[in-house]
Amino acid sequence: MGPPLFFKNPSETPFASIAWRAVNGLLAGWSNGLCIRCSTRTIQPREASARSQADSRYLQITHVFSENERGSYYFEFSCSRIRVPSETNWEALWQTGLVLCAQQGHRLRNFGNTKFWCHLSLESGEQFTNKEIRKSPPTKIPNFRELVKAVAKIANHNPDYSLYFRGQTRDYQLGSGSSSFYPTIFRSQGRSRSLTTKDLGERYRKLENCSNDLLTKLDRLKIDNINKLKKFPELTWSILQHYEVCGTPLLDFTHSLRVAASFALNDASDSANIFVFAFPYPNGTISYSTEEELLNVRLLSACPADALRPHFQEGYLLGSFPSRVYKKQPFLDFGRRLIAKFEIPKESFWGSDFHAIPNTALYPHDDEVEAICAEIKSKYDT
User: Fold this and answer.
1) What angle do CA 259, 262, 267 make, to 5 degrees?
2) Contact 301, 242 (CB under 8 A)
3) Rounded CA separation 14/17 (Å)
4) pLDDT value at position 361?
5) What sign for the dihedral angle of Cα 21, 24, 28, 29?
6) Domain limits of the chain?
7) Which of 168, 184, 276, 288 lies in disulfide reach of 340, CB 3.0 to 4.6 Å?
8) Is 273:138 a contact under the CB 8 Å cutoff?
């Protein structure tokens, strides 16, 4: 891919105008309400001329910044080269652009054949690929202290990544035996029925309805941060996902091993699993990584202060972008970011020095946002 192109004013050159409309068209399907400002430099006419080819314009977008400067919100993403004819049906272009983004440019990047120091390395000292890690059995860990030590070693050997955790009562696997972690909106309804495009469309409509209801109710209560929620649909989705209102393209993670272990063991019968994932380091309420093609929502910053649960759970919500994908595909599986898994026992895990976080703390009863979400959930549950 070539160097970034930046556009300051869409009326300054014909090519800039085309590019500006293309950028807005590409983003329209997944960033409703964004303010896009690109201000580092303006494309000059001679640059536009040099990029024209056979009466067509070629636009290669590589960056739109995701910094927050004086209240303006920026985004960054990368996509395939887009061919823009000189006489264009813009509606068709926008639809084509969205398809290009979804099918060619944006993949939840996996680790390929990269080898990692993981749970298997604790005994062997060797490194393993993500594919090997996903199919491997979990390493058994007797107590919380040993779990912390094991994860510390893994973090030390993988300094380029920030580690996130999920605690589950079981290891959900694909038919191939690989651990699988799809966001809730992409999960099939039982083994006997696959998820169809129609199913996904209905789920996105439900998500849209729940999002609108949540914003309306929060606005009436004059809850803080409502303007931020209106600008970034992913923030609204993160609340709906965290409070289990409906399926979303996001998946819950935590930075806290204690939270993950408490989640896993509080409802377990005899043992549970802790999964370790490697993601880019976050940098703000929402982090967009063009290299890894991920979005990361820091739940504590996204939620209003009246939402108590995120304060106890140290939660993050992660997804791919563009955030709306209408077909379940392997690149949406967060198993592609898995680098370790452990099995922990319910009995004697915490010992005398450490204690589980009780469900009453993980799910506080006086959470005003939880009451709102429960009302929305009951409205749309059938």
Assistant:
1) 140
2) no
3) 5
4) 82
5) positive
6) 14-105, 115-380
7) 276
8) yes
Task: Provide the whole-model pTM.
Answer: 0.71
Residues in the chain: 382
Residue type present at position 57: R
Q: How many angstroms separate the Cα of 245 from the Cα of each of 33, 212, 248, 365? A: 23, 13, 9, 17
Per-residue pLDDT of 163-218, as tens digits, reads 999 999 999 999 999 999 999 999 987 665 678 889 999 999 999 999 999 999 98
